[in-house]
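fyi for ur records
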Amino acid sequence: MMKFVLITLLAVSSLFAQSAKTESTWAPLSFLLGEWTGEGGGQPGQGSGSFSFLPDLDQKILVRKNRSDYPATKDRPAFTHTDLMFIYREPGAVKLRAIYFDTEDHVIHYTVEPSADGQVVQFIGDASPANPRFRLTYRKTGADTLAIRFEIAMPAKPDAFSTYIEATARRNSH
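which gave:
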């Protein structure tokens, strides 16, 4: 009986330790968790859409799903952009990473850099001599609001980012 109690206590304490480790992994991004509605604009024009940041695979990863709708203009028809991003930690790594895919055939590898104050998270694309570099920034502006900026830097100047899209988002209440 004592052996059973000891094994049970060890299993329960292991679960709590694992849960605490999982929660601490996502703590710097916790203000992003949930489902959001946004609007904003930039190079592609004024648009609106929705996205979510939700844990998956027993909280081992975060999944961001995004849909942005842009109305027709005199220069182009209406269009929809959808993308998917997985945020994860490489085994033994300190920094979080992310990989992004979209309907325009982009694949972007990001390093995730949360601010020390827990108010900002930047997804900074890996530099490449042949491709543009991207930076996606989420800044908490209220309990349920965000400012979002997506920037692009050309290969010859990988740290000279120019704003492509700026948007705001509000967390959906259920």
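The two ends are 46 Å apart (CA to CA). thats all i got for now
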